[in-house]
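Supplementary Data S3. Sequence and structure tokens for construct A.
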Amino acid sequence: MTKKILIQLDCDPQPSTFDAVVAVDAGADVLLRHGGVTPETVEPLVHGAMFTRGGADLACTAIFVGGSDVAAAEAVADRVRRTFFGPVRVGVLVDPNGANTTAAAAVIATARHVALDDRCRAVVLGGTGPVGQRVARLLAGKGVRVTLASRSPDRAAAVARRIEAAVAGSTVHPVGADGLLGSALAAADVIVAAGAAGVTLLDAAGRQRAAAARVVVDLNAVPPAGIEGVVATDKARPDGPAVLYGALGVGGTKMKIHRAAIGRIFTDPTAFLDAEDLLAIGVAGVA
């Protein structure tokens, strides 16, 4: 039986141990790990995946693109995509810093309690970071009216415009830490905090302004909480009219999506799994 080989392309000097362990648990027989990968150095590695096996055996080779620098990993992923030609390709999973699987898991948790459509209003705190951008993009793709908050109004505006360009018909409102954010919180059905570890983005006063919210998700697992009052282990914990989710509360779904995605790229050599694809995997029954 042909062994399943996963080629881990990581932009960091040392490839992620977390991603390696998940790959093995998801069924990879052989893991080839490469660190310090750049768009300029990745092509020979992709050729090695493409040209060493033929026929049905080629499907038993797949690529994972990761790293802590999401922009760098996306540039590598783009070069990987452009290296393929015709039917000579392998399955690819793109999940730098876990941003795509985490965002997908957060949206799936939210959808258990709120209809994600154009009647729903969401505020994404830390919206210019890797996970925040993807949460905002996935929500916008469902028709949700998204407010994207950042300490830098200019960055928030730039990210909002990129999401609107990528998601047809979407409207994303950028705000800074000003009165507009307070108004958005007061009207929000959903609040997701996706900021840097150990930074409180919504304190007790902010929670009071957001009293009408029905789902509150904090993706920060490192104390202090990103949203005051949310514990990392919260999983649909009732809190007045809202339910609360912490980072570990959505972590189980994230891991299921990650493992299922590894399985998918070994069965479909045309798969190139990004955030939207990972959300679809979760919605299809993984969660």
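Construct B, processed identically:
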Amino acid sequence: MKQALYLVRHGTTLANLENRFAGRSPEPLHDKGIQQIEEVGRRLTKQRITHIFSGPLPRTVQSAQILQRTLQAPLTINDDLLEINIPHWDGLTKDEIRIRFGDEYPTWLASPGTFNLTNCETLKMVQERVIRAIACITSAAPRGNLVVVGHLIVLRCLVLFYKGMELHDFRQIKIGNASIVCLTKNKNGGWSE
């Protein structure tokens, strides 16, 4: 049986419901998000999960802790699974970003692969660090099925990489709150969907 890596997006937050860019804000799960992740845990109970990994923000840690209680697997926090850093957007609605920062948000929507602001991360930077994180995670836990709890941007960057797609295809990857993307280890030692 092939080893599986389950990528799980954190549950719904208030920012998701209000169409806000949560970014690195310390936002917890909304009650709806808690229920969603509890359901994810039930769906994964038969997958023999041996370890759970999560980014350090409250919404991913809380999601991972809910899964940990259900799946009875150890949890490790990995800082490289942190959300993208665009600090001046954190907590703002998409409309507020448009009003305050002009064409930044339309550029982010139209050309995410080339989006580049001073003192902010690019998608390429995010992708490089999350690929590094997965390499560390899978070398530290080379056997068994693993869960990685992350953010939309983090998980999109991983899926793009493992599908061999370019960063300009970023918006083609759809991952809703509490969604599961299953990657399996291929014969070359890499991961594929």
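The domain at 4-192 is CATH 3.40.50.1240 (Rossmann fold). The chain has one domain: 4-192.
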